[in-house]
Amino acid sequence: MSGLVKRSVTIGGHRTSYSLEAAFQAELRRIADMRGIAVAALVARIDGDRPPGVNLSSAIRLFILEELKAAAGVTDPARSP
User: What range does the domain containing 47 cover?
Assistant: First the structure.
């Protein structure tokens, strides 16, 4: 498994950074490509949707996990009413 790589991005005019393993970064790039947007734009959306107290790197990983689960048709029973 590869180590973390720190990347910088500008969100709302402010520079910030996140750290992801290469596999997560590749998946983030794939999702952005599928949506026809830049990785920075996708990261900005994830940042805007993340709950308070969740760091950006964790929010990105959780977003990727949810995208992969949705693509596989996996539902989360904990989120069902």
Answer: 4-67
Is 74 within a domain? no
**47 belongs to a structural domain:** yes
Q: Which residue has the tokens 């990727």?
A: 64
Looking at the DSSP bridge assignments, the partners of residue 4 are 21
Contact 9, 15 (CB under 8 A): yes
Phi, psi of 20 (to 5 degrees): -140, 155
The pTM for the full model equals 0.87
pLDDT (tens, 9 = 90+) of the chain, 81 residues, equals 568 999 999 998 999 999 999 999 999 999 999 999 999 999 999 999 999 999 999 999 999 999 999 999 987 666 544
- The answer as to whether 60 is a domain residue is yes
